[in-house]
Amino acid sequence: MGNKTSVRPVPHGVIPFKSGVILTQRARVEAPVHSVIPTSLGTDLTLVLSLCSHRINNAFLFAVKSKKKKLELGLQFIPGKIIVYVGHKQSVYFDYNVHDGQWHNMAVDIQGQKVTLYTSCGKQRVHAILHVKKDDALDSDGVFTLGKMNQHAIQFEGAICQFDIYPPAKAAHNYCKYLKKQCRQADTYRPNLPPLIPLIPKEASLPLVSGVSLLHHHSANMRDLVRGEILPVM
To answer: What is the pTM for the complete model shown?
Structure first.
């Protein structure tokens, strides 16, 4: 008899689409941090992001918490601002509005106590300094949560085309070279096109569908996360 491969459905509340995935208010996705962020990077890293918010709120795009439930790393979108958390009770913010219904391509670079937000393919950058030296390592027993600070917090609702993790400075200032083709196109042509993904009503039934790749570089296991190969919190 031939070998049969079992494919788990994607987590509840995560809907794949042509260019990535949609996180709805019902999304419940967690994984061991070491399966998402390489141990060698710790908190010194670059995030390359392409996303579109569908609902205005104060949710985290992701959060990393230690075994003792302390926030070690996170990215929060509030109206008009992006807040980057590095270490317990340490954060910096940037004046930037993600909640405008448009696609946003950006990079967030963390090196030591310096945090930089890059936009417009690196032509615009803003620096912020952490006032206290941060821990360079993440708790290997920690948990990565996608779309919220924890399972009891408000959920980021929107479409994610790309969420990649690179070594610090490698992809930050020229991050557009690292964007997937479909993500660059979404950004370039967004003024002439209707929203790529419609808003998901709260009452909508969320079918279980076969997964697609969200990430493709250092966060290879993040791809498994949204394909359901790492078990979500139900």
So the answer is: 0.80
